[in-house]
Amino acid sequence: MAGSIPGFGFKKDPEAYSAKARSYCGGFSMLPYGIQSMLKEGHRHLSGLDEAVLKNIDACNQLSTITRTSLGPNGMNKMVINHLDKLFVTNDAATIVNELEVQHPAAKILVLAGKAQQEEIGDGANLTVSFAGELLQNAEELIRMGLHPSEIIIGYTKAINKTVEILEELVEEGSENMNVRNKDEVISRMRSSIASKQFGQEDKLCPLVAEACIQVCPKNPANFNVDNVRVAKLLGGGLHDSIVVRGMVLKTDAVGTIKRVEKAKVAVFAGGVDTTATETKGTVLIHNAEQLENYAKTEEAKVEELIKAVADSGAKVIVSGSAVGEMALHFCERYKLMVLKISSKFELRRFCRTTGAVGLLKLSQPDPDDLGYVDSVSVEELGGARVTIVKNEQGGNSVSTVVLRGSTDSILDDLERAVDDGVNSYKAMCRDSRIVPGAAATEIELARRLKEFSFKETGLDQYAIAKFAESFEMIPKTLAENAGLNAIEIISSLYAEHASGNTKVGIDLEEGVCKDISTVNIWDLYITKFFALKYAADAACTVLRVDQIIMAKPAGGPKRDPPAGMDED
Amino acid sequence: MSLKVLNPNAEVLNKSHALHMNINAAKGLQDVLKTNLGPKGTIKMLVGGAGDIKLTKDGNTLLKEMQIQSPTAIMIARTAVAQDDTSGDGTTSTVIFIGELMKQSERYIDEGMHPRVLVDGFEIAKRATLQFLEKFKTPVVMGDDPDKEILKMVARTALRTKLYEALADQLTDIVVNSVLCIRKSEEPIDLFMVEIMHMRHKFDVDTRLVEGLVLDHGSRHPDMKRRAENCYILTCNVSLEYEKSEINAGFFYSNAEQREAMVAAERRSVDERVQKIIDLKNKVCAGNDNNFVIINQKGIDPPSLDLLARAGIIALRRAKRRNMERLVLACGGEAVNSVDDLTPECLGWAGLVYEHVLGEEKYTFVENVKNPHSCTILIKGPNDHTIAQIKDAVRDGLRAVKNTIEDEAVVLGAGAFEVAARQYLVNEVKKTVQGRAQLGVEAFADALLAVPKILAENSGLDTQDVIIELTGEHDKGNVVGLNLHTGEPIDPQMEGIFDNYSVKRQIINSGPVIASQLLLVDEVIRAGRNMRKPN
């Protein structure tokens, strides 16, 4: 084995040699051999089991201990202050690991796995990071027992393949067919995801999110776009004041004096509502006072002509993508047109989707087909801010907005993350609606079956597979611990129930007992679990595969101010 | 010392110290890289200055990223990188071979032998080994219809040394098919015609071959179709946006009417160009459901996009230059630089064009093309370091396949060649050499064994046992390699383990050259400014 750990073989030599070399020729400091001497200054080189593998595992463990306590409905919140001094109070693992700015390369691999999960599914990042951490911790025990990392990798790879097989068998029968427009079905699948972020409020939040999602679900649910469910956070009130709006909520005021229009046609001009200008610089050529007067008049006439044309087409609302000229505004008022300004290109595009309008580039008379329709556009004052609510109850509307109310910014941010997770799980269930029992029932079953599988394996892999199975216990254990229950008791009774064939028994956190979860209706999405476990195993194996780390000197960026206001202890 | 008289600040190492410095550097570099060799090699993690992670087993990547400072090591690293440039693989082997040559020489030099004599022996041995390689190689007939199995074996051997087995096996097919796809008889293979795209998405095993092209941008208009079947593809390099005149021009007008007219006139020339394309579309798409796609190297401004969208045309702007070339190869048709004489013959064809959105990024797939001469390897992976790792491996795999087609020969792998060559040198060549150069031949022969030795070491096998068993079999006349799982000798031909002929030849050529140069150094002088840090 010594051969595979190059750091060891020559460790003593360089000292001896360099002493000799120095005494001979004084000054050739790069003489001693070994990798350290060949690299640029500031490089660090770690190799071998002790230096690289175990240190890496340790770092990953640190990370997963942080996220672990946030797992599940009773997970604790973390207060994270990022480099911009922004405060996050959340138990969303994706946010935590993101703002932590992890430096250690191995821990970073876990962070990347969590991020990949977040991008792929939008939920389950905590499961990924915590499970990977647990796998590595167990791998450490195996290494101390004397197994080689490569054997652990083989075992873990076998285990994850088997896990995926078992997971498929655990899918609740009949769940692959689901009506994504049925609110109850959606809620039952979304509940555990939202409950893990906002425990106790999921009964209020779930229907809101489900309603918003169902409203914008296209004919082919697979094409559901997360972007179509918007969240508007308005300070004040409480969660019970939150509503779903079929349409959009713009955080701006109307430009003109008309603040309310109902059942109206809308014209959208992406290029702005103003006099047209040439690309090349133009100069107005005026010879005398009369011409000057005439010029202003022609301008006015031109703008009036255009605005009139828009008004004649039947539109009552004009939406501009950029500036609204003073003169144009004047004529809009005269023709009783409501004027909105939406400066974000994406927001404008969403507005087009909401109303069914086609964005025109230049101010001109719109075709009847290009006009959109709204049921109502009104400026309202909510929580001290003026917002424009665009409602479109009719079909063809593909945007809906969840208006969240809360007392502080961080509560609102956290609510928004919960809604995001909910929307993402809706997307996931549109792709694959299969569900597996939640509340740790699946994990225990996986652990039990995988252990059985490990007994059948010959060779050293069986240790690794058994450890992999054991790692699943982390989830019920953490859930129980976070809820203040006796974890060991819970796990043993779970195992007992599962062994006697009740494969759907999980932890009921409210009562603190083990229950058949189909009675309390806690389901997890199969696809979320699938990706989370796969990414976690992948990350763990990647960390184990590394036996040498070569680090360059950290690039010197601008110095940050030391965080202010943090006490020493 | 004389140099000190000339320049009191200079540093000098002479005679055996210089030699030892070189030998030590070569050995040190070998130590770093040797754990990478072979399918059982371990992975190294490189952390860049900005904290970015790179995982690699590839010697070439490692040498490039490691920022080596020792002058001797740099010299060896450069040779190895040159090895990669010419033949695409074998970097690790080169470094190991050089290191081993130095190590073997050290013994003889310590016993008082002059390096020059060793170098002479190296030269003789090198020539003999190259001749032996000619005899030893397995010729492969390529012709118009290359033997896919052989290519797959070579690609698999190359890929397995870079990635884990399951993924390597999957990439093997992809790599071989893509090279065969771009191959044209009578022309050298241009690997640039294989586009390598990556998406951060799903798992590494979702990597696939797209017979067509994948562009890393999408259409720029919300109303354009996201998916279209049976498409005509117009590849063009025509500006469809208003461009300011080169001279400093200005407009003069005295009322709004005139200005409106000028605005219209400004647009007219662009609109005319767009109209010509729309006319062509209407001509070819009349009476059928076919779609029309424009891929433009230059820009298309919003008004033009709007016109095109209204005509039901999908337009992509600012495509990469190299993609223009590939598009024509993949879809047919020709790239046009002007819209004045558009004919239906300029158009290419693709069965399916669709857009895939990943977060903020958009990708456009051009698929189902008729007999493509360009294709895309679409690499997927959950994070950047996985993607980078696969990318490097694919590059090497492609080169391995290309080399095989061009060499029309392969060499038995798994250490079989090295052991055979060593036996040949010891048993036959050595006897024909007169005098002390014999020892040089012997050193060379022993150095060849480094590769099978390290292969065994990395697999956790006993090095001595393995070597003795292998040489024993070779003495009996059996050409065998090493089975890394069991440590038993195997027939590489049966297992399908083949290395590139050109890679091996390059290693044997360049290794001794560098080793000889390093051995013949008797003074290392460092002089000049900046040579020492101010302290």
Automatic annotation (TrEMBL), chain A:
Keyword flag Transferase: no
Subcellular location: Cytoplasm
Pfam families linked: Cpn60_TCP1
Segments crossing the lipid bilayer: none
MF terms in GO: ATP binding; ATP hydrolysis activity; ATP-dependent protein folding chaperone; unfolded protein binding
SUPFAM superfamilies: GroEL apical domain-like, GroEL equatorial domain-like, GroEL-intermediate domain like
One GO cellular component term: cytoplasm
Keyword tags: ATP-binding, Chaperone, Cytoplasm, Nucleotide-binding
Family: Belongs to the TCP-1 chaperonin family.
Identification of the protein by name: CCT-theta
Source organism (scientific name): Sesamum alatum
From TrEMBL, chain B:
Family: Belongs to the TCP-1 chaperonin family.
CC terms in the record's Gene Ontology section: cytoplasm
Complexes and interactors: Heterooligomeric complex of about 850 to 900 kDa that forms two stacked rings, 12 to 16 nm in diameter.
Entry protein name: T-complex protein 1 subunit zeta 1
Function comment: Molecular chaperone; assists the folding of proteins upon ATP hydrolysis. Known to play a role, in vitro, in the folding of actin and tubulin.
Protein's cellular compartments: Cytoplasm
Keyword annotations of the record: ATP-binding, Chaperone, Cytoplasm, Nucleotide-binding
Main location: cytoplasm
Listed CDD domains: TCP1_zeta
Pfam family, one: Cpn60_TCP1
Organism this protein belongs to: Sesamum alatum
A GO molecular function held by the record: unfolded protein binding
Entry-linked NCBIfam families: chap_CCT_zeta, thermosome_beta
Keyword Transmembrane assigned: no
Statement: the UniProt record of this protein carries the keyword Transferase: no
